[in-house]
Specification:
Strand order of the largest sheet: 5-1-6
Number of helices: 3
Number of domains: 1
Largest sheet: 3 strands, antiparallel
Structural class: alpha+beta
Order of helices and strands: EHEEEEHEH
Strand content: 15-25%
Number of strands: 6
Helix content: 25-40%
């Protein structure tokens, strides 16, 4: 099943603080969604829980000074294509085909955040606003959670 997100990587240099915040928020969103069910991307897997893994569908999400990479869980058959954003590589065309699998919710949330932080210039998707609702909600929840933790 083809269901793909597309983005254009910013040509702007991403400073250390912006990249660290991007990775920190991605980890925060991963913790918030891990083990939950989702109806994101059309709800094709409503009974399967989200398990964010490394780019090969096993181990842990990879987040370092050069890139962010993750996938769904290979053991559950819920992996598809790796979602990867490189820090320094500018490009006119990047994509990730998720096949509407549960990790799609994090892909959408990360793309929204990356666009707001000028890490990517733009993104689009085979999905519509309804397909992206849970990704938008996940990002909003992570922002709210971050604000609360800085007040405490």
């Amino acid at each position: 099943m083809g269901y793909t997100h597309y983005w254009k990587k910013s040509k702007n240099k991403i400073d250390d603080n912006t990249w660290k915040e991007f990775l920190s928020m991605t980890r925060r969103m991963t913790k918030l969604i891990q083990g939950k069910t989702t109806t994101s991307a059309g709800g094709y897997y409503p009974d399967d829980t989200v398990k964010i893994c490394g780019p090969m569908g096993n181990k842990k999400l990879l987040a370092n000074k050069d890139y962010l990479a993750f996938n769904g869980n290979e053991d559950q058959g819920l992996d598809h294509e790796s979602f990867v954003i490189m820090r320094s590589k500018a490009s006119d065309f990047e994509f990730c085909k998720t096949a509407r699998k549960p990790y799609d919710v994090l892909c959408v949330a990360v793309l929204i955040m990356a666009n707001e932080m000028d890490i990517i210039d733009e993104w689009r998707s085979d999905g519509d606003d309804e397909d992206h609702t849970e990704g938008k909600e996940l990002y909003a929840l992570a922002v709210r959670d971050r604000k609360l933790s800085t007040v405490s």
